[in-house]
Amino acid sequence: MDNSVNKLVLKLSKSEKEFFSKHTKYSKKGDSNYLKLYNSILKNGSSTDIENDMKFEKNSSFKNISLDKEILLEKILISLINQKFENSFTWKIQRDIHYSQILIEKELFSKAQKIINRAKKTAYQTEEFELILLIISLEITLCFKHCFIENYQKFLELQNERNKIFEILNNIQQLLLIKTEYQQYQFNDYIDQTDLKNFEKIYGHSPFIPEENILSNRAKSIWLYNNFFYSYIIHDFNLAFHYHSKLYDLYKEYPKLFDRK
């Protein structure tokens, strides 16, 4: 039996439960079975017998418990998404992307461009590079009208911008690869016996990248983490503390870029 709904309900935070309750209190009477199920799960915990107990209780309105579970799952997911739209920069950017897509479909190009500009500004501030690629795709769409190019110069500028974003993302991926190699190496060698030549022999390259090659603050956070491990490999613990402190300072300086996790 799929127990996903039970698990999801029990994982909701206090604020998520309050948001869900606020946006479902006006549900139609005939559409209230999922709320009864929700309240029962909250009351009884993760018991897998909840559904059967509710199905066979006297005067039960539950005819298809599986359907009610799917409705509850969808309602909770929609509620969580809407809450994210209100509280998260990343989700607000995604919301604006969807708004722009609808406006473009309805040929309200001027309004779409204004929302795209807002989303793009926030995306650059928060270094959401994958979302910037989506925004650029929308901007490229606006360079055409009925499949004919209207703004060739803008099109070229967007192509160049997209290439720069790919370069930034590739930079991040390169650093993430080194991070995973460090973590693998950490488990395959004794920390007091680590050796840079041994690392290079295993992975075929030096793990160190010069700071001038770092293209974003997100990349810099990974670079500092990697250099922390690099310092341990060369047994320079003062240098390790230096990089760890720099990483902490970066988090403090750019709190919008890094969540607590």
Give an overview in words.
By secondary structure, the chain is mainly alpha-helical. The chain has helices spanning 4-11, 14-22, 33-44, 50-55, 65-87, 89-105, 109-125, 129-142, 152-188, 196-203, 217-233, 237-253, and strands spanning 144-145, 148-149. It has a two-stranded antiparallel ribbon. The protein starts with a helix and ends in an 8-residue tail after the last helix.
Highlighted features:
261 residues; two-stranded antiparallel ribbon; mainly alpha; flat
What's the arrangement of secondary structure elements?
Blueprint: H1 4-11, H2 14-22, H3 33-44, H4 50-55, H5 65-87, H6 89-105, H7 109-125, H8 129-142, E1 144-145, E2 148-149, H9 152-188, H10 196-203, H11 217-233, H12 237-253
Antiparallel strand pairs: 1-2
Helix pairs in contact: 1-5, 3-5, 5-6, 6-7, 6-8, 7-8, 8-9, 9-11, 11-12
In short:
The protein is mostly helical. It is 71% helix and 2% strand. The chain has a two-stranded antiparallel ribbon.
Count of discrete alpha- or pi-helical segments spanning 4 or more residues = 12
Helical percentage: over 70%
The ordered string of helix (H) and strand (E) elements is HHHHHHHHEEHHHH
Strand order of the largest sheet: 1-2
Largest sheet: 2 strands, antiparallel
Cα Rg:
25 Å
- Which spans have pLDDT < 50 for at least 5 consecutive residues? none
Distance between the termini: 32 Å
Give the percentage of residues in beta strands. under 5%
